[in-house]
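Predict structure. Chain length: 166.
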Amino acid sequence: MKHPTDEIIISYLYKEASAGEVREVEKHIASCRECAEKIEGIKKTIFDIDQMDDSAAPEYLENKLADFFDKIANIDDHATNSTEGTDGKTTGDIMTPEELAGYLKIPAGSIYEMLGEIPHLILAGRVRFRKTSIDKWLDSREKNSPAKTPAVQNFDDSVKLWRNVI
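Prediction complete.
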């Protein structure tokens, strides 16, 4: 067996792996010292984190750890404030560039090119987007939006509007 992926290792450690995956991982670590040490290191880290007092971990560390485990274990699928993305995955109110690209139905590379105009945050050194800010930004860019059409205040205003139509 080739080295197990990080996703399989995490599912193995959290007892979410299938019986076949468990057998494969255990067979592999019996003969691969590198993977056995890696798994032991992750186990120790998980144990240490579980033993920590919530107030002991600085916020930036919590953010980095959350980002790390999101990437490895696709925890995004269990976000509590979630909506269904275009790719079938769930995304929370905070989106990655790839999730935003799916939401906007544009290539992910375009997101990075548009960073100068798209509202974004830098969290734990990563670019993130708040869905509510993106929706407001989209509203401001929308042509012929009802919000941009001036409301008729009185009869004189309606005459001015009709002149623009004619």
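Summary: The longest strand covers residues 126-130.
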